[in-house]
Design goal:
The complex is a heterodimer of chains A (254) and B (256). Chain A has 254 residues and is an alpha/beta fold. Chain A is 35% helix and 25% strand. The structure holds adenosine-5'-triphosphate (ATP) and magnesium ion. Magnesium ion is lined by residues 47-48, 162 of chain A.
């Protein structure tokens, strides 16, 4: 189960004339099939840039991104992004239509079957009763659920999640983390999950990469084999937390 | 919707009362300031004889033809502007130059080019509507949040499909505003052009009808035609655009 997503020697520099930001420097990552790979790093270190390169929205200055051994250079339905903001649903489509739309674009199945698949994923995230609502009628947490359902329904090779729970209240976030884990355990989708929250990384990740800032590099990748479900205070949790906290090096930031 | 109509009806009633009082008081010669009864009679006669209806239909036919052409050109030009930076610059300048130019000012030229037929009026309507619609459409496309485009690309959309499936609905409030401005501009340009054509002796349209009734000193007939113009305007703006808005941008929460 190796090498669904391979990044080698990724470099990305943003040069706006005034500023010169090394967002990514020599990033090498090898993510196996079925990994829930967390990337943890301080604000502005290049996490989003990395994910956007994988998604094909951004092009690295050098390096190679392989999905199932094939180089990617543009956005495509094999790598689906779930964004941080609550504005990623198409406002002119209902919940069900939002989930169904990519299937329609890709002619994934016959019309009837498409509907059924979409409904199944809408139900999976607990929104069957809201299938015919428009996005502006949903709460932030519900919107993120729909975005996850839409991404999952596309059955991507890699699911890319850029701090999708960061704008939620603690309770909703915990609920969605648990949902994500149970979905991941069921489908074993390969997920790259970005967060700047150490706890979230420990709760979710099967592997955790820690990034440092300016230049944005991968400092270390640690395995996370704690038993699930994982809670603060459970055996091993605090040790992991200390390791990650030390790696994040908060002193350097302040 | 109902509320709007209640407001409208109330206003119209007040206006009618004021009008009738003024007419009865005899401040002005009845020939120039006809009573509501006489205007109503003219309206009825005009509708019954088919003259008013026929001219209204002719005006609507002209305006719809002009608008359809303008909408097609707007979509074409605005989409090209999204694809090509050079074309975008060119279009920007074209709008800046052409937009302030009243359509009616081009009528003499249009008559030279197209003669005194429908083509000239349609040309004037297209000119009057095209530029404000392009202005709004391009502005709408520009303000489409990047995230919608990325969601579309992520779903596998590219090129023209991306424009039509994502950009058009995402910019819909702007497109609708453009169409509304286009409609009201076209309506004005049309009536003005028809009146000028009245002097040129070509027949057809509400503007021409007004011109003709004035010539015949049938002032209540002029008012009857004005009422039809206002009526069509209200129907289109409140009903037609109102319903489209309710079914689209309001329903989607893109406009309050
Ligand atoms: N389009 C851009 N143009 C110029 N600089 C950019 C651009 N996108 C990102 N950057 C810069 O690259 C660096 C990394 O940005 P990025 O968004 O990847 O950070 P991040 O780790 O996702 O931060 P956060 O946790 O706050 O989301 C930042 O310094 C940012 O200013
Ligand atoms: Mg980010």
């Amino acid at each position: 189960m190796a090498g669904v997503l391979q990044l080698t020697g990724i470099n990305k520099i943003f040069d706006t004339g005034k500023q010169h930001v090394t967002a990514l420097e020599n990033v090498d990552i090898d993510i196996g099939g079925g990994d829930l790979f967390c990337i943890l790093g301080p604000s502005g270190c290049g996490k989003s840039t990395l994910l956007r390169c994988i998604a094909g929205f951004e092009h690295p200055d050098s390096g190679e991104i392989l999905v199932d051994g094939k180089a990617v250079d543009r956005p495509g339905p094999d790598r689906v992004m779930v964004f941080q903001g609550f504005d990623q649903l198409l406002p002119w489509k209902t919940v069900l239509e939002n989930v169904e739309y990519p299937l329609k674009v890709n002619k994934t199945a016959a019309k009837k079957e498409r509907r059924d698949i979409s409904m199944e994923f809408v139900s999976l995230v607990g929104l069957a009763d809201f299938a015919h609502n428009y996005p502006h009628q949903l709460s932030g947490g519900m919107k993120q659920r729909v975005a996850i359902a839409r991404a999952l329904a596309m059955n991507p090779k890699v699911l890319l999640m850029d701090e999708p729970f960061a704008s939620l209240d603690a309770q909703t976030r915990t609920a969605l983390q648990n949902e994500l884990i149970s979905i991941w355990e069921r489908f074993r989708t390969t997920i790259v999950f970005i967060t700047h929250n150490i706890q979230e990384a420990i709760i979710l990740g099967s592997r955790i990469a820690v990034m440092s800032k300016q230049p944005g590099t991968i400092k270390e990748i640690i395995e996370n084999n704690l038993d699930r479900p994982r809670f603060v205070g459970y055996p091993g949790f605090d040790e992991k937390w200390k390791v990650l906290h030390a790696l994040l090096d908060f002193n350097r930031l302040s | 919707m109902k509320e709007i109509f209640r407001k409208r009806v109330l206003f119209i009633l007040l206006l009618a009362v004021a009008w009738e009082s003024a007419a009865r008081a005899g401040f002005f010669p009845p020939l120039l300031f006809p009573s509501l009864g006489r205007i109503w009679d003219s309206l009825k006669d005009g509708v019954m004889s088919g003259e008013l209806v026929g001219n209204a239909v002719f005006s609507l036919y002209l305006i719809i033809t002009g608008l359809v052409i303008a909408v097609i050109l707007t979509v074409l030009f605005s989409s090209l502007a999204m694809v090509s930076k050079n074309f975008d610059n060119f279009l920007d300048t074209a709008v800046a130059v052409m937009n302030p130019l009243p359509g009616i000012a081009l009528l003499p030229l249009a008559i030279l080019w197209f003669g005194t037929g429908q083509e000239s009026i349609i040309f004037v309507i297209v000119h009057a509507t095209l530029w404000p619609m392009i202005l709004n459409t391009v502005a709408g496309f520009r303000t489409v949040p990047v995230i919608f485009r990325e969601v579309g690309q992520n779903a596998g959309l590219t090129g023209p499909r991306l424009v039509f499936s994502i950009m058009v609905p995402a910019a819909f409030p702007y497109l609708l505003t453009g169409l509304k401005i286009g409609w009201s501009r076209a309506w004005r340009a049309l009536i003005a052009a028809e009146m000028v054509f009245g002097t040129a002796g070509v027949s057809g349209g509400l503007g021409w009808f007004i011109y003709k009734q004035r010539y015949l000193m049938d002032i209540s007939g002029v008012f009857a035609a004005l009422i039809v113009i206002v009526l069509i305007g209200i129907l289109v703006e409140d009903l037609f655009f109102g319903i489209i808005e309710k079914k689209t941008v309001r329903r989607w929460g893109m406009m309050v």
